[in-house]
Amino acid sequence: MANAPEMDRFAAGQAHHTPFGPAGRSWNLRRHPLPDLEQQIRRVIESSPMGMQFFSLEHGNRLILTGANAAADRILGIKHAPLIGKTIEEAFPDLASTEVPAQYRRIAEHGGSWRTQQVRAEAQQIRRAYEVHAFCTGPNQLATMFFDITRRMRAEAEIAAWKQRYELVATASGEVVYDYDPHTGAILWSGSLQEVLGYQVSDLHGGIDQWADCIHPEDQAEAIRLLQIAEANGQPYETEYRFLHKNGSYRWIHDRGSFLTGPDGKPTRMIGMMRDVTERRLMEENLRQAQKMEAIGRLAGGIAHDFNNILTAIIGFNERILEQVPQNTPLCAYAIEVGKAAQRAAALTQQLLAFGRKQILQPRRLNLNEVILDYEAMLARVLGENIEFIVDLAPTLPAIKADRGQIGQILMNLAINARDAMSNGGTLRIATRHVCLDAEFTQTHPTISPGAYVTLSVSDTGHGFDAETKARLFGPFFTTKDPGKGTGLGLASTYGIVQQNNGHLLVESEPGLGSTFVVYLPVVETDKYDPVVTALPNNEPHLPRGSETILVAEDEPAVREFVTLALRELGYTVFPANNGEEALRVSRQHKDRPIHLLFTDVVMPRMSGKELADLLRAERPNLKVIYASGYTRDVFSPDGNLPPHITLIQKPFTSASLARTIRETLDRPSSP
């Protein structure tokens, strides 16, 4: 039998030439009478669907073609008769350079057998293919049996090509592909297994049981339940769960597959694909968190607006009571406690606003080290003597742009949280660093963009917390403290402040190993810091007075009455109005006399304080304006940043802060 390239030239005689006869010679079966056995053998040879060729090894190691059957002519598409009596090399010259003649001579001389496949291919396409069996039939005698396997080889090649294309598509898709046998539980893995989950195929040899073991315990039961339902009904399988990556982390996987069924309708296998959707899930969670924060922020802003109005009236009129009742009396003591409670409530509303990212910001270019040093003594007092306080500041830091007061809130909130986690004492470390975050870091923290940041880290040696607590840590009103010992707004407001200042807050903690909070604040491209504005003391024995005319626009009656009373006591002429429209009418009624200052609430029905101020300034160009609010509802800017030319007094305010703000604004030169 010839090798693949030689198959079209292969010839070995006609069907009536066989090697059977006296002395092992080839006989012409049509001319010689044969015993019954030889007749039977002849019939077998002539009727066999397999091609047969016969060779004899003669003197000089010449391997002579002695016969072939009809099937050999048909399968090979040639006539063997002209080739009878020729050596294998003469009959088939192309075989001379192959192993076929040598293998045939070996078998004829020494016995045994040989099996091979011979394929002829052109332009990477299989033209003809045969399977050949060569065996010894007697001393120096050889027979070959062969049959056409072209169709089978073409099918196998086509299957291999489809499998290769399938593997390329699966790999290019970036998905893990699997073939699950529900009868044995075996799973064949392919596709981007290593790229997605870090495993080699050999790592996942445990079938369906290993698959289940790799699913996060919280997701395992549901994933298995849905698979059982799909298998029982022959329905498509689709779900999402967390799957264990080889590096020990969990990745969110979208798993979908379809069952193939047998004649009885029962599933025989399932083909499926697993796609990493961790980033999508994280983005969805961030979106849900942002939407929740926005909703609660709006609620907090609305509550803060109304609550701060109430507190302004409580604080203001309580001051009037303290001015009029004798000191060291029970009534005076009661009034003092009312004032303290009102201040605590005011602090609570600020936390609500910070959590909802609705605080009014006055961003400045800051040196974070200087802010920490300003708060160092206060933080030490808050922590107490049983906690070691370490400040580790970077030698130099670039500027950040943030609200100085809010940075102070972050420091206080994180310090108080650390103190409460170390009831038996410990160590608190506050550190600053200048870092550049690369793409590798941001891949594991997709909410953070690469770039330069200043970090503020606050580490404690407290009791720490587990992953479940960490997931809820920044939620509103969540606290691990005993009832009555925490509002659940400290860390929530810290998170809101960081977000409002375009920063990021990460936390690392394990039970018993303490916690580390790291705040990332983006660097400002500047070499200069804004000067620190020092607030005036709040203990002047006499409040600044005046005689100017002030228009007060305030929709809350109690606040309007308190402001009007306080300003008149300071010598000012006051025109009160309960909304913006009335304030316009009052101004126009007194168009012939000067109004030096507009004191207006920011958020009012039908017309905001800013709209009122713009209209009045068009009529009175030299009018000065003070806005009053604890919640601006994004009137001045979407991000809550207060423009530098705006004067705002935050509610709730005291008579002293009101008097100072009024006087400072009136004495300030008018803007050109």
In short:
The protein is α+β, with helices and mostly antiparallel strands. It contains 19 helices and 24 strands.
Explain what this protein looks like in three dimensions.
The protein has 672 residues and is of the alpha+beta class. The protein contains 19 helices and 24 strands. The chain has four domains: 4-150, Beta-Lactamase; 174-276, PAS domain (Beta-Lactamase), CATH 3.30.450.20; 363-522, Histidine kinase-like ATPase, C-terminal domain (Heat Shock Protein 90), CATH 3.30.565; 549-667, Rossmann fold (3-Layer(aba) Sandwich), CATH 3.40.50. Helices cover 39% and strands 24% of the residues. The strands form six sheets. It has a five-stranded antiparallel beta sheet. The protein has a five-stranded antiparallel beta sheet with strand order 9-8-12-11-10, with helices on both faces. Strand 20 (549-553), helix 16 (557-569) and strand 21 form a beta-alpha-beta unit. Helix 10 (330-355) packs across helix 15. The radius of gyration is 46 Å and the shape is rod-shaped. The N and C termini lie far apart (107 Å). Mean pLDDT is 82; it is low at 1-32 and 533-539.
Beta strand count:
24
Distance between the termini: 107 Å
CATH fold-level label of the largest domain: Heat Shock Protein 90
What proportion strand? 15-25%
Structural class by SSE content: alpha+beta
Radius of gyration: 46 Å
The pLDDT mean sits at 82
Low-confidence stretches: 1-32, 533-539
Total of domains: 4
Strands ordered across the widest β-sheet: 4-3-7-6-5
